[in-house]
Amino acid sequence: MKADYEIAAEAEMRPIEEIAEKAGLLPDEIEPYGKYIAKVSLKAWERIKDREDGKLILVTTINPTPAGEGKTTMTIGLAQALAKIGKKAFIAIREPSLGPVFGIKGGAAGGGYSQVLPMEDINLHFTGDIHAISAAHNLISASLDNHIHFGNKLGIDTRRIVWPRVMDMNDRALRHIVVGLGGTTDGVPHENSFSITAASEIMAILCLSTSIDDLKERISRIIVAYDVKKKPVTVGDLGIVGAVASLLKHAIKPNLVQSIEGVPAFIHGGPFANIAIGTNSIMATKMALKLADYVVTEAGFGADLGAEKYFDIVSRVAGFRPEMAVMVVTTRALKYHGGAKDLEKESLSAIDRGFANLQRHMKNIWLFGIPVVVAINRFEKDRDSEINRIMELCKGLDVPVAVAEIHDRGGEGGLELAEKVVENTGKANFRPLYPLELPIKEKIEMIAQSIYGARTVTYTTSAEKQLERLEKLGLGNLPVCMAKTQYSLSDDPSKKGVPKRFKIKIREIMVSAGAGFVVPMTGSMTTMPGLPRHPAAENIEIDSEGNIKGLF
């Protein structure tokens, strides 16, 4: 089969004006960025906001494996299949971050015949949203240090600065730094750090904001440091809210593109799910729900991270009522969680053992009152015997299951899955996992024990003090956004399948007061990933005519 970039290069794209018309948008509601990309004005929301919502389908998966599960590909393929059976479908997914594109993961525009286009532009810079978020974030960093340099009227304690700098790249060397070196004209020396832009609170704020006014209000609440009396210092205190919001004037507008089969797609916002909320912007999904019968979206990584945060944070803020979750699995991924050493060899016993991870994630979804449909993402070399075993195990739990070949066949390969999705809508009884009124520690422990299966939760001394401070500041009623490895239900990435009798260790608790959640840091999680030994960047090339190869 041809490589993803070859399939994308050969695809015939429609002008973005045609895609906008197909989606139900008016000509004056879009702002074209070239022939095949457009920003959508927030004015469109005012016209469509009173319409009835379509059905919201969340695509999620088990704990990720090196074999890959194809969650984004399944999201796109399912929407294409729904369109083929006569439903008006819309895709709503995140923007790719350059860090993973050049790192271990590669691009995030789907694959095979279930891609969003133009693939190269989407994966590389796109409309500049992430760069705008970086600039807005770093304006706060520069203003904070400048305030300290010119007298520190707010009495900021330089030992208690909690606002890092950001860049949209994996660069482990910048995780821990010292700034202000060089002399009296070069600022005040203090420790600082870099996070990847996807981990920025500005990214989460952009995705949760519903208007410019909402954006400004959230920015004003960001806590950047504490003063010598241990009171919080905010962006509002620095007096730069308007400037920061101005940099996001265009970034707040959803981006419209198309799938390889012409299904409209919003790609907007890009927070990671292991350290942030892990889904696209609320406004993109809200608009899509008013324009389509079915909106297919995704939440990053496994259901223990992306889906939990989608239900407990994003859906609360937006008022979403998800209809169902589609759980993507592959034979190789289940064999990996089942302890198989060679994923190419047939092993029904490894499938059986690995199924426990899938079953745990299905139970997690059911805790929220959401039904599950299992989508077996089939690849060319998959064995019928292993596919059939997964189907038998799902049917034994009375869980709808369908085989999908959306990578090789596009929407045509997902017709059975689309029918199962349509058949099983209308059965949800959505409810969040916890009430917001619970103390932060109780919310953390509910997630750790109910979702991860942990026996207990432990806290460092500094985390205990941070908890106490947040409660005193009146922030105890915020939802919890856990920062945890995606590779395991535990906080240890080496523990596959369903670990038993493990502890979750909270080493630090950060607060995103503007976004509106607290972030407990578990295990060895970092907000600045590093590149692997052989990064994907080594495979990317551009020829003399500007054609890019090696993106996947």
Would you write up a description of this structure?
The protein contains 20 helices and 24 strands. It has three domains: 4-127 and 251-423, P-loop containing nucleotide triphosphate hydrolases (Rossmann fold, 3-Layer(aba) Sandwich); 129-240, Domain 2, N(10)-formyltetrahydrofolate synthetase; 440-522, Formyltetrahydrofolate synthetase, domain 3 (Roll). A hairpin with a 4-residue loop joins strand 14 and strand 15. It is 36% helix and 19% strand. The strands form six sheets. Strands 1, 2, 3, 4, 5, 6, 14, 15, 16, 17, 18 and 19 form a twelve-stranded mixed beta sheet that branches. A three-stranded antiparallel beta sheet has the order 7-12-13. It has a three-stranded mixed beta sheet with strand order 20-21-22. Helix 13 (303-318) packs parallel to helix 15 (348-366) and helix 15 (348-366) runs parallel beside helix 16. The chain is α/β, with parallel strands linked by helices and 552 residues long. The model has no long low-confidence stretch (mean pLDDT 96).
Mean pLDDT: 96
Overall domain count: 3
> Which residue ranges are poorly predicted, with pLDDT under 50 across at least 5 consecutive positions?
none
Class by helix and strand content? alpha/beta
CATH class value of the largest domain: Alpha Beta
Outline: globular
Largest sheet: 12 strands, mixed
Overall CATH architecture of the largest domain = 3-Layer(aba) Sandwich
CATH level-4 homologous superfamily of the largest domain:
P-loop containing nucleotide triphosphate hydrolases
The CATH topology of the largest domain: Rossmann fold
Strand composition percent? 15-25%
Number of strands: 24
Report how far apart the termini are: 14 Å
Share of helix, binned? 25-40%
